[in-house]
Amino acid sequence: MHSLRSRSPLLPAAALAVAALVSGCGGQGTTATTASASPAAATATATAAATPSPALTITDPWIKTGGKGMTAAFGTLVNNSDAELTVVSATSPLSPTVELHEVVDSGGKMVMRPKKGGFVVPARGSHPLTPGGDHIMLMGVTGKVEPGAEVPFTLTLADGSTVEFTAIGKDFAGGKENYQPGEGKH
Length: 186
Description:
10-stranded mixed beta sheet; 10 strands; globular; Immunoglobulin-like; 2 helices; alpha+beta
């Protein structure tokens, strides 16, 4: 919150006028809005309010820490739209090969494999990306992922639109998941 110490002697008077105007127009069912000190700030506030939220977001994105080789990213995909959305691919500068994976039972053994058709996120719903479940797999990782590292990702949807996010490096021992080459099927 900015201090109301005036840059101009008119600012306190303007603030009082806005306060009087808001209280004078108030009534049951009316919401007061915060007055802006400058026209530019008012425009920025109006633009931000008019900008719709993205159709797809990801909450709590994180990536398993580790060295070169393989790792995976997780979080929850959230669909803010009234239509089903499908994530069909992902990229990250950390890895030349990024795939959308699932973990399935194959003859009594849990195996990772590419998810045919991508991740489908229902309208106004969510789709979890979890260890031992659907996840974003990075193969041929070119560097070490340290705790707290910020790793950028871009998701591509079936309609061609993209969503960017940053996953945070997190230590995770997991439930027998191993994202190292040659130590499991994927």
